[in-house]
TrEMBL record:
<keyword id="KW-0720">Serine protease</keyword>
<dbReference type="Pfam" id="PF02897">
    <property type="entry name" value="Peptidase_S9_N"/>
</dbReference>
<keyword id="KW-0378">Hydrolase</keyword>
<dbReference type="InterPro" id="IPR001375">
    <property type="entry name" value="Peptidase_S9_cat"/>
</dbReference>
<feature type="domain" description="Peptidase S9 prolyl oligopeptidase catalytic">
    <location>
        <begin position="483"/>
        <end position="692"/>
    </location>
</feature>
<feature type="domain" description="Peptidase S9A N-terminal">
    <location>
        <begin position="7"/>
        <end position="425"/>
    </location>
</feature>
<dbReference type="Pfam" id="PF00326">
    <property type="entry name" value="Peptidase_S9"/>
</dbReference>
<dbReference type="InterPro" id="IPR002470">
    <property type="entry name" value="Peptidase_S9A"/>
</dbReference>
<dbReference type="InterPro" id="IPR023302">
    <property type="entry name" value="Pept_S9A_N"/>
</dbReference>
<protein>
    <submittedName>
        <fullName>S9 family peptidase</fullName>
    </submittedName>
</protein>
<dbReference type="InterPro" id="IPR051543">
    <property type="entry name" value="Serine_Peptidase_S9A"/>
</dbReference>
<comment type="similarity">
    <text>Belongs to the peptidase S9A family.</text>
</comment>
<dbReference type="InterPro" id="IPR029058">
    <property type="entry name" value="AB_hydrolase_fold"/>
</dbReference>
<keyword id="KW-0645">Protease</keyword>
């Protein structure tokens, strides 16, 4: 281990006062990205990190080779049918990015395709490797083909700041059109005739707030909609039926949808139902009626129907249930599929319509009477719809995985109820799912609430064993039990991997989320600590490495302040650890919209005091802290790099224990490095650090 002295961040006291509380922030200067001292400090931290972890280089290389060796580098996705084509992606050994392809469709059965072998009449739509060139970062934000399959809209980002440049490609000639639009957001949608593309722009706070209409061959785009309320994001999409464009505006707790006949792109959007604070809803076109999924007087959401000429009048179809959170509705010509969550697991409910000739209301009522759920055998799993672009079909494409089952793609035959496995991701090197086992444990929180924990290990791993305990717990995001190739490098070294499904996530329904946000946010942190204590008390582990990213990085910082003695190490990736200062500044990206999640400390003294009591940066003290590895990216627009930089600086200045390490990727964004080999190396680095801390 190197004895080199870690960098010491200079202290430049910056005073701020809120609600009569004066705070001195010595490291606020690090937020100036253009200051040469900031860059120099981050580079010095990277140099120190390399010195402190140099002894892990052999292990890091070994883990990287394990990840690479288990991955079928030359591979392809299962083709998905859209109109006259089957679409799929290829990956090729030695290349960082996927290649999007298609072949003409002949019937409803996907073509048999072989990794590394091109099909007859195969067409390359977009080659990420060709587009990336020598750029150290590359990302595609939009890839949308016109309904007739003749034109592609695609957008690219070469910095990681999630500002994309939109271009158009004629798929019949291969020509890139002269039309080019800079600084757009993710997504976008074509009109039905493919003449017009709708896209969104962001404001200075990185909020998508404008929808523009671009007509191919023209230079002056038209502003279609602008959202003035800083709490709302906007987005636009085309229904599966290709009959309507849907323009949505939503905050964390409220939504509003506008619709437009997709054959009339220059027409005026009309509101389905005006926004009502606290009411969220989404619209899906089902032929001669609309589905509306909403939470009006229905905490876990309710599914309703509405006539085409009066979409704001909702008639209940699947009423609210306390034990079932409705997630989304997918409508097709002859059936619908509801994606739901119950008992901490996801599921699918099929609604087959009644006989042709009946009224639409009779058909849809018959569908609920005849509805059924698809069964899956494992105790833990995650399932959901996957790539169903065709409105008229007799098959449902779904994605399935568990902590021991690699990601799998099935077609569910609606007529026969047969599950047809199309592909399971290959895991090379002799992986056998029977060598591993998964469990569900329940920890008891300090208020008596039962906290689910998903666990996977090798069958021959005894107790106690070193453990990685992962957590997130915000935005109603669920960390469902899924498979990871990289995780095998831990499991095969005798580690146990567990996910604590803490409140603030969505695993147990909307109420689970509500009990872990705003002034109940501390439940997220205490749940995680209680989960760690449970894993120790029940003999699972004596050495726990905690890991989380983004809002899960806030969780890492908070639990380290609450109970540093519980953890042998902490990995915090792009961590939201300076939450109070960020949420106090409405000029920063995402701040105002976040007030519905965390509260508004700028205008509410009680929220200010509550947040100050848990935010990691504010609450570092002199106790011994475990070793901490913080990983961030200079161009991150969601959690700015200075948050972990300030946190590590304060830990070094105040806390004992450690060491405290900061790794800044100088050319990437929120998701880290973009190429798959680069991403594998980054994961191998983190895993090598975890292995050392878990076994030393």
């Amino acid at each position: 281990m190197s004895s080199n002295t870690p960098p010491v961040a200079k202290k430049i006291p910056t005073e701020r006062t809120h609600h009569g509380d004066t705070v001195i922030d010595e490291y606020a200067w690090l937020s100036n990205k253009e200051d040469p001292d900031t860059t120099a400090y981050l580079e010095a931290e990277n140099d120190f990190l390399k010195q402190e972890t140099a002894h892990l280089s052999d292990l890091q290389e070994q883990v990287f080779q394990e990840i690479k060796g288990r991955t079928q580098e030359t591979d392809l996705s299962v083709p998905g049918r859209k109109g006259a084509w089957w679409y799929f992606t290829r990956t090729e050994e030695g290349k960082q990015y996927a290649v999007s392809c298609r072949v003409p469709a002949d019937g409803d059965t996907p073509p048999v395709i072989t990794p590394g072998v091109r099909l007859d009449r195969e067409q390359v739509i977009l080659d990420g490797n060709e587009l990336a060139g020598d750029s150290p970062f590359f990302s595609v934000g939009t890839s949308a083909v016109t309904p007739d399959g003749t034109m592609l809209a695609f957008s690219t980002d070469y910095k990681g700041d999630e500002r994309f440049t939109l271009k158009f490609k004629n798929l019949e000639t291969g020509e890139i059109l002269a039309d080019e639009i800079a600084d757009i957001f993710y997504g976008g949608s074509w009109s039905a005739d493919g003449s017009t593309f709708f896209y969104t722009r962001v404001d200075d706070a990185w909020r998508p707030y404008q929808v523009y209409r671009h007509t191919l061959g023209t230079q002056e785009d038209v502003l279609v909609y602008e959202e003035s309320d800083e709490r709302y994001w906007v987005g636009i999409g085309l229904t599966r039926s290709e009959k309507y464009l849907l323009l949505g505006a939503g905050s964390k707790i409220t939504s509003e949808v506008r619709i437009l006949d997709a054959t009339d792109p220059t027409g005026e959007f009309t509101i389905v139902r005006p926004r009502t604070t606290g009411v969220e809803y989404g619209v899906e076109h089902a032929g001669d009626f609309f589905y509306v999924l909403h939470n009006e007087n229905a905490e876990n959401f309710e599914l309703a129907t509405a006539p085409l000429d009066d979409p704001g009048t909702w008639t209940p179809l699947i009423r609210h249930r306390e034990d079932t959170r409705l997630l989304e509705i997918d409508a097709f010509s002859d059936h619908a599929v509801v994606h739901f969550r119950r008992d901490g697991l996801t599921g699918l409910r099929v609604l087959p319509y009644g006989a042709a000739g009946e009224t639409w209301r009779e058909r849809v009522e018959a569908s609920e009477r005849n509805a059924y759920e698809i069964d899956f055998p494992e105790p833990l799993y995650d399932v959901g719809p996957a790539g169903n672009p065709e409105f008229t079909t007799t098959r449902l494409r779904l994605a399935y995985t568990s902590m021991v089952t690699p990601p799998s793609v099935y077609d569910y035959e609606l007529d026969t109820h047969e599950l047809i496995l199309l592909k399971q991701r290959p895991v090379l090197g002799g992986y056998d799912a029977d060598d591993y086992e998964q469990f569900r444990e329940w920890a008891t929180a300090e208020d008596g609430t039962k906290i689910p924990i998903s666990i996977v290990k090798r069958k021959d791993t005894g107790r106690p064993a070193p453990m990685v305990l992962y957590g997130y717990g915000s935005y109603e995001t669920s960390i469902d039990p899924g498979f990871s190739v990289a995780r095998l490098s831990l499991l095969d070294r005798g580690f146990v991997f567990a996910v604590a499904h803490v409140r603030g996530g969505g695993e147990m329904g909307r109420r689970w989320y509500e009990e872990g946000k705003l002034t109940r946010k501390r439940n997220t942190f205490t749940d995680f600590v209680d989960a760690a204590r449970h894993m120790k008390a029940t003999g699972w582990s004596e050495r726990i490495i905690a890991r989380g990213g983004s809002a899960g990085g806030l969780l890492m910082g908070a639990v380290t302040n609450l109970a540093p003695e519980q953890f042998a190490g902490v990995v915090a990736e792009v961590p939201f650890v300076d939450a109070l200062n960020t949420i106090l500044d409405p000029s920063l990206p995402l701040t105002v919209i976040e007030w519905d999640e965390w509260g508004d400390p700028l205008h509410n003294a009680d929220v200010y005091a509550y947040m100050k009591g848990y935010t990691p940066y504010e609450n570092v003290d002199g106790r011994p802290y475990p070793p901490i590895l913080a990983i961030t990216s200079l161009n991150d627009t969601r959690v700015l790099y200075h948050e972990p930089a300030k946190w590590i600086a304060r830990l070094r200045a105040i806390a004992s224990g450690g060491p405290f390490l900061l790794k800044t990727e100088m050319g990437a964004g929120h998701g880290g490095r973009s190429g798959r080999y680069d991403a594998w190396r980054e994961e191998a680095f983190a895993l090598s650090w975890i292995i050392e801390k878990g076994t030393s």
